[in-house]
């Protein structure tokens, strides 16, 4: 059987995997994982090193049943890390794992290489408390993951029946994956497909390759939309990069590179105003928010910041402001295109592609639409306070608490980091003035050797000043901004919880309305008014339908919220780790420089 | 103890002085001055006395007021123990307690205690160095008041009061206000002193500036350290990490202090050298005045012998000051250069070592974070950040 054709485009060459797998025990097959390049897949270089994505396991659901097919579909996870597309249960292809997609982390590639394919996928994904060098998934042999029923995964993914959403429970989906290989076999098919699909969606990554055409005969139709993730090595296929934000005009150019078939050309640039970004957000949140999607929020308006820029103040604070905004907008767009559902939205495509966008009027603060929005927000706040939801699913309650706690924490952290940035800038200034003073002192010194040493000290301090400035910038852009982003995102997460609550409310309201109608009917029955009775009966039917509809809506929204939250957690962890590593690597670099600077003092020689 | 600022002190076994411990009550510090000597001028070979900061000032001022020592650079008096910084912080901490988490408060408190301890250690060191400078000076170490200071086992406050009444700080006050004008105004006959004058005046203003700038730099570093502590407290760092962080934090501020302390000490030392120049300049002025007076007396044919004698005295005094001054200033120069060199090297080495330590810790944490679960990633960041102090 031809399960699927999977085109995986990696940086080097295209790989075509054709699996004719049988359902049997393929899962465990991981064995061939590392060393072999799997089935006739030409691996791209590194593949052999990583067994990780034992693919077999790939998605929880996928593996299960027989259909290796599902496996093959190499769930998105795989995609994330490697080109290796779906993996044949038997011959998984080793993706070229890079823990952090774009991290050039040599730090981590190394270990990978050295480890035999043993490493369970977990390591790839890092998120779970998996130690890179620890026993993989508790499985002695990686490949035998299949044997391990939920060993590693915190939550056994194996619950079938469940929409697979539960499988997401564990913070890291991939954790599941790893385990999946094993348990998948035992899983019920039902769950599989669902989860699989879900997985695919989740893994739709910015690195998705447009040219992925999955024609599956499997029930995983969602796959079609799936894009394979290219290894981080190559540029993401859909990279929305907010390039140059010019100081002169409050505009940002959005540069996109894509190979997605839905777009007309491969690389294109458009100019967008800040209000356009806000307009996009408004549209997306109106359309998708109520359905429980977490719509990524853009950076806020800043009257002070923009005024400075407009006034033409050419100092570091305005450049900082523009740079911060540019970065925030870029990350915003990347989150939007990363989202498997949002990327489908025609508004997004229009935003990315269309030459001229109609001016987004309703984002102007004082416009009519603006006022309306303000009012809506206010009523929302009030209703939020009065809605006391009977939470049937404790998961939501817990999650909400987590989110709120995280929000508080990170707001505090943001303040502290901003203070850190201010102090570091002060340090930089003070170091500069000290450097000058030391130079003067050196010139006043009459002992030649000491004079020379003091001058050198002045030079070193000068360099330190530069270093401190860079470090301040690093603190700002890699750390403070990230926290700000995260706080905004948390707000969006809470928004989705709110929408769920609204859906619940609507359902409850419909139920009470239905109840009222029934009471009316009863009364009319007793009062014996046949014509009105007829009307009442019709209304009851109408409301019964509504109740059913709203209940279904609520279920759907709940499922979406749940899925979204899990995805959010996964993404966040991944991103944060990546950023932190980057930040730390830059710290490392500065330490090296400090070492160099002070070594250059070489006072022993001069004196 | 790190005798960083000065070198070659306390090497002569005939008179060894140190301050082995001190007590801090509120802001009053009581130093225990311990002496070991082989000199017969002392009653016992080894003894200790309690002394306050005011006693040190009394000793210094007495030496300054002694005419015989006019040609010497009197070691600068140790500055008053300044707990203002930690005290202010403690005040702020108390005010902000409500807004902080328990962890944050505890951490800041610990940091405050450490800072307090650092100030305390510093002041002990500075007082110790003062005494050691005296003990290693061939002339000053024989001073009677110095001996009293070291030996007298009673309270010195009575003597302090008497001294104040006697001198009223006259000489000191005069010096403070008039020296610049006088020193620059007097016509210099000696090249050596001409050069020294120019050099010291210029150098003093520059080192004063450098000291102030270095202090600002140190303050910024401290602020950053505090920020990191608060960040780490917010993210709940565990105890083991805290101790590591504290060590790191202390090391970092120590190396900053080294530079600042060095500059500050020599700023004061140069002021003492300037004081010497001033005294000599005044002696020169006196001598010139006495010449004029002698001429006038000769003109009037009145009181000539007195005028001649006065003139001779002035000349002698001036010559003595010049001779001893030249010796003092030359050795001072050598001492300063050596101390600077030693301290700058130590500082650079500390910076390098610290950078190495931080690098390896960072590397470790990078690996750690990779392996850590998502709830701990923030913990990891903090660690790294705190290393940045």
From TrEMBL, chain A:
**Pfam families attached to this UniProt entry:** PX, Vps5
Main subcellular localization, coarse class? Answer: other
Which portions of the sequence form the region Disordered? 22-169
User: What is this entry's stated membrane topology?
Assistant: Peripheral membrane protein
Ranges annotated as biased composition (Basic and acidic residues) = 37-48, 160-169
Entry's Gene Ontology BP terms: early endosome to Golgi transport; protein transport
Alphabetic keyword roster: Acetylation, Cell projection, Endosome, Membrane, Phosphoprotein, Protein transport, Transport
- Tagged with keyword Transport: yes
Q: Which GO terms describe its cellular component?
A: cytosol; early endosome membrane; lamellipodium
SUPFAM superfamilies xrefs: BAR/IMD domain-like (SSF103657), PX domain (SSF64268)
Q: Which Gene3D superfamilies match?
A: Arfaptin homology (AH) domain/BAR domain (1.20.1270.60), Phox-like domain (3.30.1520.10)
InterPro entries per the UniProt record, alphabetical: AH/BAR_dom_sf (IPR027267), PX_dom (IPR001683), PX_dom_sf (IPR036871), Vps5_C (IPR015404)
SMART domains annotated for this entry? PX
* PX domain ranges (all copies): 234-359
Any one GO molecular function term: phosphatidylinositol binding
The entry's localization annotation reads: Cell projection, Lamellipodium; Early endosome membrane
Which residues fall in a compositionally biased region of kind Polar residues? 62-72, 141-150
PANTHER family under this entry?
A: SORTING NEXIN, SORTING NEXIN-1
> What's this protein's family per the entry?
Belongs to the sorting nexin family.
What protein am I looking at? Answer: Sorting nexin-1-like
Source organism: Sphaeramia orbicularis (orbiculate cardinalfish)
From TrEMBL, chain B:
Q: Which PROSITE patterns does the annotation name?
A: PX
Q: Which family does it belong to?
A: Belongs to the sorting nexin family.
Q: Which residues form the PX domain?
A: 1-156
Q: Got a GO cellular component term for this one?
A: endosome
Q: Name one GO molecular function term.
A: phosphatidylinositol binding
Protein name (record): PX domain-containing protein
Query: Which InterPro entries does UniProt cross-reference here?
Result: AH/BAR_dom_sf, PX_dom, PX_dom_sf, SNX5/SNX6/SNX32, Vps5_C
List, alphabetically, the Gene3D superfamilies matched: Arfaptin homology (AH) domain/BAR domain, Phox-like domain
GO annotation, biological process? pinocytosis; protein transport; retrograde transport, endosome to Golgi
Taxonomic source organism:
Sphaeramia orbicularis
Q: Which UniProt keywords apply?
A: Protein transport, Transport
Q: Quick check: keyword Disulfide bond in the entry?
A: no
Pfam families listed in its UniProt record: PX, Vps5
Gene transcribed to yield this protein: snx5
PANTHER family hit by this protein:
SORTING NEXIN FAMILY MEMBER, SORTING NEXIN-5
